[in-house]
Design goal:
alpha+beta; 19% helix
């Protein structure tokens, strides 16, 4: 493991039917230069599998309940909107890696010609695709419960070290998620 600078960290509370996360979304700037092959090698070496290369990501806001996700920009530049419509916008360039907790809404709102992104999932988990505007009450409840039960991955996909920012994140009680948790189970 090499020494990596501290990643940028962004958080958001639940908004409507978007769970978001108590874990911070991490952005490692210029963490993996060298394009798609370098990203694949790094992600796979750190246990983030089920990889794909694609010219960007979906342009409609969505989130995953079955797994956390990493996105590495192999070439070009893209803008992401995070945490739902009207949320935080970030621009990512070649070599940047985003480590996204399950439940965080994300969409690509712009990209350069030649954008190529590589994705991966801890231990090769399969991902689902959920959208706030089309998820029913029962599916939303099931997604929330699943997200809360996912383990913290063993290694950061960019640095290879522990996901210390997630380990140090507030508990669901400290994050004041008890009302969310209590709302998931019928009285």
């Amino acid at each position: 493991m090499t020494n990596h600078p501290t990643p940028e960290m962004l958080t958001a509370r639940p908004v409507g039917r978007l769970p978001n996360s108590r874990f911070p979304l991490l952005i490692h700037r210029a963490a993996v230069p060298g394009g798609a092959e370098a990203l694949l090698e790094r992600f796979r070496g750190h246990g983030w599998l089920n990889n794909w290369p694609y010219p960007g990501i979906y342009d409609d806001p969505h989130f995953h309940s079955t797994t956390h996700e990493c996105l590495g920009v192999a070439s070009g530049e893209m803008e992401l909107e995070l945490f739902g419509r009207g949320g935080t916008r970030v621009t990512l360039g070649a070599g940047d890696v985003v480590v996204m907790p399950a439940g965080v809404s994300h969409s690509m709102t712009g990209g350069s010609v030649g954008i190529l992104v590589v994705g991966g999932y801890p231990d090769g988990r399969d991902w689902d695709l959920l959208r706030e505007d089309s998820i029913g009450e029962a599916d939303w409840r099931a997604a929330q419960k699943l997200i809360m039960s996912l383990p913290i991955p063993g290694r950061d996909p960019a640095s290879g070290g522990p996901l210390q920012a997630w380990i140090d994140a507030p508990s669901s009680v400290e994050w004041d998620w008890n009302p969310v948790r209590e709302a998931l189970d019928p009285a």
